[in-house]
């Protein structure tokens, strides 16, 4: 988590004008509002969340159950306005059971922090709940058999916006095969949940191509304006 000073330095480093976020709920461990949770604990979750988590944990819908160490359900604030949807757990996530805990996760933390958000103010999930061996791209059959879980998570969180990070998330949520560069910069609607979707580059891509940080910042600002518009 970046300090405010680091956040401003980050934005300055990528040449971006600074704004500050208002009206974001901020809470520390020990003073969590009812019905919300700190990452990674979901143990006090309502029954529907617990049932879904149990279903995912015992899932054998595709062959990935044979090679996973554990399922990676999702984490964060179950009442969040923002939902971040990634591709699939990597090796680090497979070991730890939490989404975006590896190098890409640190980049995601930076993106969130720059927007005045953190893992306690968003809900994070992936298209796949199991790690594909060798980090290969998910097969369509795997995405299809996992989709009911993400749909249920979206239905229960009811986010105001989904930030789809990377091509796999964008393609699965939008039933599109357009490149991320073409899908960015507009508000889409997820299929079939009907939630606003903003597409941006995957944090792992930013590690290789930091020049696109500015684009991601613009996408985050767009998502923020979508949420702002809904609150008017
Ligand atoms: N990349 C993803 O898309 N999701 C993760 O959880 C980790 C890396």
What are its keywords?
6-stranded mixed β-sheet, binds uracil, 232 residues, alpha/beta, 9 helices, Uracil-DNA Glycosylase, subunit E
Descriptive notes:
The protein is of the alpha/beta class and 232 residues long. It has a single domain (4-19, 47-231), classed as Uracil-DNA glycosylase-like domain (Uracil-DNA Glycosylase, subunit E). Helix content is 41%, strand content 10%. The chain contains 9 helices and 6 strands; from the N terminus they run H-H-E-E-H-H-E-H-E-H-H-E-E-H-H. The protein has helices at 4-13, 47-57, 91-96, 103-114, 140-157, 167-174, 180-183, 203-208, 213-231; strands at residues 75-76, 82-86, 122-126, 161-165, 188-189, 196-200. It has a 6-stranded mixed beta sheet with strand order 1-3-2-4-6-5, with helices on both faces. A hairpin with a 6-residue loop joins strand 5 (188-189) and strand 6. The longest helix has 19 residues, at 213-231. 40% of the residues are buried. Residues 17-41 have low confidence and may be disordered. The site of uracil has 10 residues, from loops.
